[in-house]
Amino acid sequence: MTTTEKQTLGFQTEVRQLLDLMIHSLYSDKDIFLRELISNASDAVDKLRFEALRDESLYEGDSDLKIRVQVDKAARTITIADNGIGMTRDEVIENIGTIASSGTRRFFERLTGDEAKDARLIGQFGVGFYSAFMVADRVTLLTRRAGTASAQGVRWESAGTGDYTVETVERPERGTAVVLHVREGEDEFLDDHRLKAIIRRYSDHITLPIVMPAADGASETVNKAAALWARPRQDITELEYDEFYKHVAHDFEAPLAHIHSRVEGKQEYTALLFVPRRAPFDLFDRDRRYGVKLYVRRVFIMDDAEQLLPNYLRFVRGVIDAADLPLNVSREILQKSRDIDTIRSGATRKVLDLLAELAEKEPEKYRTFWAEFGVVLKEGVVEDAGNRERIAKLLRFQTTAESGDGVSLADYVARMVEGQDKIYYVTAESAAAARHSPHLEIFRRKGIEVLLLTDRIDEWLVTHLSEFEGHALRSVAKGDLDLKGVGRDEDGPKVAETEEPEWKALSERMAKVLGDKVKEVRVSHRLTESPACLVAGEHDLGIHLERLLKAAGQNTPASRPVLEINPGHPLVVRLRSESSEQRFADWTMLLFDQAILAEGGTLEDGADFVHRLNGLLLGLQGA
Ligand SMILES: Nc1ncnc2c1ncn2[C@@H]1O[C@H](COP(=O)(O)OP(=O)(O)OP(=O)(O)O)[C@@H](O)[C@H]1O
């Protein structure tokens, strides 16, 4: 088929669903269609500007970049035209016929099937180009990619039902014009004043002039058309910041917080950065997109400039406009640039300061932030040694004293008990498993608070955060515990001096049975209820971390735990007088397996455990 032929193509199923929603939508604020189309036009111009940095001929002699909005009352059309990058025929089919955009994918995730609810979502998401069909019963898109011949124009048209047509046409102008054939009953939009008001409301921050015919027939720039970040802070309203954020972040909700700052000195730059309210679905994707756009002296250079902020702040969205970088800066150059390092560390500090301020002054908002992005921020403790202390202050935990995710290390330190100088934590798969850990028994008795660490990253976090404000972080499941003089005067299990040799003999006898499963067996100071628990060596990885590494397929150095036994527990006491070697071995193995289970671990051979347990139960019955 020659490319000039007119093709009729079907929309992807999801697009059809979306269009159906638009057309039958009960959504009343239809005016967002204009915001969406202007936002696309502005992105298209940014792309052209960037590509033209390398190849000026793309301007085709016209570098007066702008967006035109025009109403034709008689023809009942609204046209939104840009002289941006434009699209080839293939690009039109790919971009307009299918759903790739992140915003729209998220929209679909939220659909409920309840018409009224779903209609409201449209307003929140905007859902891009397709929102044109809320006010139009037919949409024509004319476009030509910058740098292609005028015979390579493309005309796309659809009535928003199952299919659309594309054909190649002659088009002298570069860029894209979207013509909306306004639906019966939506006549309010065929009015210049109405459109101007909508533009001022939603698109004032767009850097390009948005031009409409003025009363006298000349043309008038409707928006401020100044880069929002370049304007003085005191002149910018919250609403303007919010709309700008929605545009750069392709988000539908207002952000949680922002910083707008102009830095002078070694590197001059302006940063306008936002913390979103909600985590995107691809926060943990390997090839996720980053959030910050790089501008150089108001000229858009690139999206997703990952060099501008460290990985653990990848949720931040916004703009950094650098004064001193060359316009032709590429990703490769950015990677090696010292100037960028300066900007990056400055911007990082600003974001961390913003979070600290939020935590202090708006704890409710900070809680929202933490719930959405806390896990990512934790990566910073591992990644960013220079800011480790700053980040440590921002961490929040669940503890044995509080079930919410709201305890800071400073809170913890402030309520440490008499004699306590360490920060204690336990790591486990889940908060429930952590709370039931036998290691906590003595802590509960003594009234000592313990942090419950249940995120995967936590194991790495504690290996990098060895102390907080002079207080060492200490696992409750590692090494020998010395809690003498700490907290309430409750001690762990005690062994009378005269009985020591006997306990020593028991420990050794058990250790023999367990062989190289354990490093040693010893009498516990931490258990008060459970019969036994496993303890890792002070410098070992820790039992939970080993399990995680194994699950991830990594080879871990085999470290052997210590089995601690509770001399106050009847099962253990009973073992001392067990004369049958077989039964002694079975009980010992049982205690060992129980200790693994109690920490949320899994047994190598579950069937063997069950078999042994049943054997012992039957033995008890016979006795
Ligand atoms: N005026 C235009 N000029 C050039 N390309 C355009 C234009 N309008 C739309 N496109 C292309 O079509 C794609 C789809 O647009 P659409 O508005 O549906 O979503 P989006 O803007 O990419 O994403 P989001 O939903 O996150 O806003 C755009 O990504 C762009 O590639």
From TrEMBL:
Main subcellular location of this protein, as a coarse class: cytoplasm
Location of this chain's protein in the cell: Cytoplasm
Ranges for region B: 332-547
SUPFAM superfamilies assigned: ATPase domain of HSP90 chaperone/DNA topoisomerase II/histidine kinase, HSP90 C-terminal domain, Ribosomal protein S5 domain 2-like
Record: residues binding ATP: 36, 40, 82, 87, 95, 102-103, 124-129, 176, 331
Entry-linked InterPro entries: HATPase_C_sf (IPR036890), HATPase_dom (IPR003594), Heat_shock_protein_90_CS (IPR019805), HSP90_C (IPR037196), Hsp90_fam (IPR001404), Hsp90_N (IPR020575), Ribosomal_Su5_D2-typ_SF (IPR020568)
Keywords of this entry: ATP-binding, Chaperone, Cytoplasm, Nucleotide-binding, Stress response
Similarity comment: Belongs to the heat shock protein 90 family.
Physiological role: Molecular chaperone. Has ATPase activity.
Protein name in UniProt: Chaperone protein HtpG
Natural source organism: Acidiferrobacter thiooxydans
Taxonomic path: Bacteria, Pseudomonadati, Pseudomonadota, Gammaproteobacteria, Acidiferrobacterales
